[in-house]
Amino acid sequence: MAIQYRNTTFWGVASDLKSCPPSDRPEIVFSGKSNVGKSSLINALADNRKLARVSATPGKTRLVVYFNVDNKMYFADLPGYGYAKAAKDVKEKFNKLCDEYFVSGRKFSLVLHLIDIRHDPSKDDVRMLEYMNQTGIPYFLVFTKCDKLSKAQIRKQLTEFSKILDFHEDARIYAVSADKKIGLDDLRAGIEEYLKDELESKEN
Ligand SMILES: Nc1nc2c(ncn2[C@@H]2O[C@H](COP(=O)(O)OP(=O)(O)OP(=O)(O)O)[C@@H](O)[C@H]2O)c(=O)[nH]1
Ligand SMILES: [Mg+2]
Q1: Which of 58, 135, 153, 191, CA to CA, is 20 to 30 A from 88?
Q2: 142 neighbors 41 (Cβ within 8 angstroms)
Q3: What is the pLDDT of residues 167-194, one digit of tens each?
Q4: Is residue 3 part of a domain?
Q5: CA proximity to 141, closest of 178, 182, 170, 108
């Protein structure tokens, strides 16, 4: 059963856990530092530039934004963490929302954790991976903005990352560009394959 990613629509925003949608479908969570390209990747996967708001100024997304993907799953666009310029109270509020989301016991199927291929992972990235490794949250690592580097540079960066980061053995690794549409089909197929059993059990 193929997912029609183009059939993705805005579901709504949640400022707290009570206003999240019912957990009636697999939920894919996009996490990562502010400005890493979460909203752009959602738009690219859905092939719709107008879907999620892409920030000219980082740190704009302060709510969890939900998208309905083909009535089969949700995409949850989390607020980006570690936005240095946000006022302290604002920063704490959305870091709290992010943290709450992960410790809430809310059911989600998979986290796509995004890291800019050009930069060293931040302390928050390391913390997040440790957290997911320890708690057994399934995740894919998605390196973004690959159009900014040559193929050789991408390979070099991926080798570096594998030395620094402690990937879970089941974590799949993708290198993508939302701008140049690189790696998107692989990622779409990877999500679908990962959710296969869950999606099939919903059909029956
Ligand atoms: N070159 C390039 N730029 C990108 C790519 N993806 C995103 N960007 C740019 O990166 C900036 C941030 O993108 P967003 O998608 O808003 O990032 P975000 O992670 O949603 O940011 P927050 O909502 O602030 O957490 C924008 O200026 C995008 O145009 C990409 O694949 N290639
Ligand atoms: Mg965003």
Answers
A1: 135
A2: yes
A3: 888 889 999 999 999 999 999 999 999 9
A4: no
A5: 170
Which CATH number covers residue 186?
3.40.50.300
Ligand 2 centroid, distance to 71 Cα (angstroms): 22
Report the domain count for the chain: 1
Taking the mean position of all CA atoms in its chain, how far away is CA 96? 17
Q: How far is CA 28 from CA 42, 49, 83, 88, 157, in A?
A: 11, 19, 22, 28, 26
For residue 1, being part of any structural domain is answered with no
Q: Torsion over CA of 104, 124, 165 and 177, rounded to 10 degrees? A: 90
Residue nearest atom 1 in ligand 1 by C-alpha distance: 145
Determine the average pLDDT of the residues in 72-91.
Answer: 69
Q: Model pTM? A: 0.90
Ligand 1 atom index nearest CA of 144:
31
Specify the 3-state DSSP secondary structure of 5.
coil
